[in-house]
Amino acid sequence: MAKRLRELAYALLTICLAVGIAHATHGVFPIQVMGISPHDIEANALDVDYPDIKPTAGIPTVPVGHRVFVEAIEDTLIDISWEITGAPVGSGVAGVTGADTVFTFVADLEGSYEVSLSLNSGATTATLWVTAAEFVGVGNIGGQTPSAMEGECAGCHAGKAADWQTHVHATATVPNLTLPYMNESCMSCHATGYDSQKWADDLGFAFPQPGVGVYDSLTTNHPDQSVFFNVQCESCHGPG
């Protein structure tokens, strides 16, 4: 498993931006959250060892309950130690350690996690902060009024939200709900923060038969869920 993750980490070096660069105490070497696509999961059988793994954009802001993979992108580093040196009160991952090139943990509570990477020689230490939050939505789906108090994106970033509404991402769900082949699996890309279990259990949602008027019906009858329709801000910037 570790070998597969190392191979994946090295392959990602050629295509990933250095997100979440960490500054060391004596010098600088980068660590970052890994981006993992559905193809990565399938091709490397990552779900065998990590049944809870989900695709991730590779940014240091993740959903609560998300499995995070952090890598040391300097492949010459050897004899290293990872440790979660900061975590929300009550988190079960505080103090978790690792020694491989890739380190993984589940962000089990809302809040910030400090991930530290040390050379066992004691010469250098680097840190990266990962924040876990809940999705809140842009706030203007289905004619709703954005709320800054609820943390909805358009409540504070009205100008950005207005620009977003002119983009194809703002209608990623709308036209597709009229297509006969649209199904629940499509929502993982055509909605924001999609989690089939959460939508079914928490919001009482059953995916409808596509057709004319379905989108309007959903935004009227399921406002708590439809707030996450379309490809919104948090799809790229992370939740919260």
Which structural class matches the secondary elements?
alpha+beta
Sequence stretches where pLDDT stays below 50 over 5 or more residues: 8-27
Helix content: 25-40%
Number of domains: 2
Could you name the CATH class of the largest domain?
Mainly Beta
Average of per-residue pLDDT values:
80
- How many strands, which pairing sense, and closed or not: the largest β-sheet? 5 strands, mixed
Describe this protein's structure.
With 240 residues, this protein is an alpha+beta fold. It folds into 2 domains: 2-133, Immunoglobulin-like (Sandwich); 141-237, no CATH class. The chain has 10 helices and 10 strands. The strands form 3 sheets. Strands 4-10-9-6-7 form a 5-stranded mixed sheet, with no helix packed on it. Strands 3-5-8 form a 3-stranded antiparallel sheet, covered by helices on one side. It has a two-stranded antiparallel sheet with strand order 1-2. A hairpin with a 5-residue loop joins strand 9 (111-119) and strand 10. The longest helix has 11 residues, at 2-12. It is elongated. The protein starts with a helix and ends with a helix.
Which SSEs are present, and which pair or pack?
Elements: H1 2-12, E1 23-24, E2 27-28, E3 31-33, H2 38-43, H3 46-49, E4 61-63, E5 67-72, E6 80-86, E7 97-98, E8 102-106, E9 111-119, E10 125-133, H4 153-156, H5 158-164, H6 187-190, H7 196-203, H8 214-221, H9 223-226, H10 233-237
Structure characteristics:
single chain; 240 residues; alpha+beta; Immunoglobulin-like; 2 domains; five-stranded mixed β-sheet; three-stranded antiparallel β-sheet; 10 helices; 10 strands; elongated
